[in-house]
Amino acid sequence: MVLILYGFVVFLATLLGSFVGLGGGVIIKPVLDVINAHSLTEISFFSSCAVFAMSITSTTRHIIKKTPIKPSIVLLVALGSVGGGLLGNYLFNYALSVSTPNTVRGIQSAILAVLLVCVIIFVSGNFKTFNVKNPIAILLSGLLLGTAAAFLGIGGGPINVAFLTLMFSFTMRDAAVYSVAVIFFSQCANIISTYIKTGFSGFDMKVLLVIIPVAVIGGFIGSILNRKCNEKAIKVTFTIAVSSVAALSLYNAVMSFI
Length: 258
Hints:
It is a single chain. The chain has helices at 2-20, 25-35, 40-64, 71-98, 101-124, 135-152, 157-168, 172-198, 208-228, 231-257. By secondary structure, it is mainly alpha-helical. Helix 1 (2-20) crosses helix 8, helix 3 crosses helix 9 (208-228) and helix 6 crosses helix 8 (172-198).
């Protein structure tokens, strides 16, 4: 029953992740926290694997379809996000070593809720955006995004979309494509780091037999929708999904500290 529930959550999350750039992890992590069928470390790992599988599928399809992107931005942000993925994973494990899993879960949920509210405000408002070209600034942007994504165990999708839109004046459709590409690199680094530290010892690996195929299917369908839907549809879907996850994250934070 748990695996069926996981499969449904991952499919919906990765479809939305590929469609509007959410990444998927931002939905998977909070929902699996509520289900609470596995440890916090395992949940973060499952989320990373699902998001990574989705990003491979979605990015490959965009490459095949020759979706226009600026390789220099993708590579610089991705390079920074790899370092951020390693740093975020280190911070996560350090937090677990000095505190209880429930406290860490509460901290993650509280930070995520605050960040998502900021994302909603940005997307709903009419804020000035920039067209950053400095390579160092782009690299540091990737580092920041990768660190947040790995520490929170979410892939970073909505945060990526808002940040990329702000930094490079992208449309939400374009930001979604860049976001998924960046997620590929940051989650790859995160998974490798987890393997080096744990060897996946004690992890319920049979869960991957369900969530990875489902994530691939979700990523494929989502990438098709991204190309077919207009900017308004993407923005509305993004806002509704992020608002829902923000509310769920706030609930998780409160319940963790009660």
